[in-house]
Amino acid sequence: MGRPRKAPAFGVIAFFAVVFTLGSYFTFASVQGDYGLFRRIQIEAEANLLQKEVDALEIEVAELRNKTRRLSDEYLDLDLLDERAREVLGLVRNDEVIVH
Question: CA separation (Å) from 66 to 30, 70, 77, 78?
Fold first, then answer.
C-alpha cells in the first residue's frame, strides 16, 4: 500500500504565509499607495487642470501686453485711450446722451 501522508512542515506554511502577505502588501501599495496608480491618475488630472489654467493666463498676459503696447509712448491707439478713459474715469463727450 502507500505511505501515510505527512502534514506539511510548519516552515513551509510560514514561508507561503509571509510570501502571500508581502505580495498582498506590495500589490496594495502599488495601486493605492503614495506612489500608486490611483495617485498617478490624480496627479495627471491636476496637471491637466493646471496646464489649462496656465494656457488661460498666457492668453490674458498676451492681451494685457497688447493693450500696454497700444497705450505706450511709441504707439498710441486713440480709440483704446478713449475707451479706457471712459471706463476708468467715467468720462463722456459733450454730444453724448446718457440713459440709466
Answer: 49, 6, 11, 14
| Backbone torsion region of residue 93, taken as left when φ is above 0, otherwise alpha when ψ lies between -120 and 50, otherwise beta | beta
- The C-alpha atoms of residue 76 and residue 67 are separated, in whole angstroms, by 10
pTM assigned to the model: 0.57
In tens, the pLDDT along 17-36 reads 999 999 999 999 998 888 88
Distance CA 71, CA 46 (A): 37
Which SS3 state, helix, strand or coil, does residue 71 take? Answer: strand
Give Dmax over CA atoms of the chain in angstroms: 121
What is the chain's length?
Answer: 100
Secondary structure letter of residue 1 according to DSSP = -
One-letter identity of residue 6: K
As given in the structure block, the three cell numbers for residue 4 are 501515510
Cβ-contact 65, 72 below 8 angstroms: no
